[in-house]
């Protein structure tokens, strides 16, 4: 078992928001995870922060587990899964947060599995024109990208600074490339559909180095099935980069 695939122990903890199954060590947390927000103190919210209904003996206060704001029952009635905070059960969320969490469910239910199952790409390192066929997959603990061919690389997700999804018919720098730049500095990102995704440019810091290393991933065109699998993997990586940005910007 590689260092990046080592099993991390977990523990069950209880907070005011509910039961959470979290890593024993904070350093072992998923890079896509979110910290629990502090709750707005009861004394600071005499009214619902959505509809402004005044709280009293009948109209009780409820805190959204995702944003920590205070709402009435009508504005904070949905209980939705929140895997990014490691909650064991669905938790109470306001309408806005519930909508976001429901959209993220697809990533955790489907796209995360696609990333872990992996796909085959032609990979070139740095500015080299020489490439190597490699299977790329996300580690089970979500903290590393594994690249396996004649060579083996482990890229720590936390050290990725730039992800560019390349699309068919365009070259880097043109408008149809969807770029997540300077994630470590939490700069804004540009999103777009990537139904024609054909590759990816990745920049990251290797262990012990302050310099950025670049890798270019190109989808294999040998078989249509492989091409579809690679496109699905790139689409999942597109979503993963967005969640990674959000986690760092928290």
UniProtKB/TrEMBL annotation:
Record-linked CDD domains: FYVE_ZF21
Protein species of origin: Chrysemys picta bellii (Western painted turtle)
GO molecular function per UniProt: metal ion binding
Gene3D superfamilies according to UniProt: Zinc finger FYVE domain-containing protein 21, C-terminal (2.30.29.160), Zinc/RING finger domain, C3HC4 (zinc finger) (3.30.40.10)
PANTHER family assigned to the protein according to its UniProt record, in alphabetical order: ARRESTIN DOMAIN-CONTAINING PROTEIN D (PTHR39490), ZINC FINGER FYVE DOMAIN-CONTAINING PROTEIN 21 (PTHR39490:SF8)
Protein name: Zinc finger FYVE-type containing 21
Recorded superkingdom: Eukaryota
């Amino acid at each position: 078992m590689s260092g990046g695939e080592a099993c991390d122990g977990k523990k069950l903890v209880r907070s005011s928001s509910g039961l959470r199954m979290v890593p024993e060590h904070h350093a072992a947390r998923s890079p896509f995870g979110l910290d629990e927000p502090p709750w707005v103190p009861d004394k600071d919210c005499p009214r619902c922060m959505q509809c402004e209904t005044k709280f009293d003996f009948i109209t009780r206060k409820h805190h959204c587990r995702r944003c920590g704001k205070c709402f009435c029952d009508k504005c904070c009635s949905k209980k939705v899964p929140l895997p990014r905070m490691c909650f064991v059960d669905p938790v109470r969320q306001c309408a806005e947060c519930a909508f976001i969490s429901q959209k993220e469910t697809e990533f955790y239910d489907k796209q995360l599995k696609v990333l872990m199952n992996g796909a085959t790409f032609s990979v070139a390192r740095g500015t080299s024109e020489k490439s190597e066929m490699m299977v790329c997959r996300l580690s089970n603990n979500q903290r590393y990208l594994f690249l396996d061919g004649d060579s083996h690389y482990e890229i720590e997700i936390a050290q990725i600074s730039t992800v560019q999804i390349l699309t068919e018919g365009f070259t880097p720098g043109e408008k149809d490339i969807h770029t997540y730049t300077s994630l470590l500095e939490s700069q804004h990102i540009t999103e777009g559909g990537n139904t024609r995704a054909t590759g990816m440019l990745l920049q990251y810091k290797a262990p012990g180095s302050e310099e950025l290393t670049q890798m270019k991933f190109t989808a294999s065109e040998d078989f249509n099935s492989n091409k579809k699998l690679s496109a699905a993997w790139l689409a999942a990586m597109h979503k993963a980069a967005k969640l990674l940005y959000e986690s760092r910007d928290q």
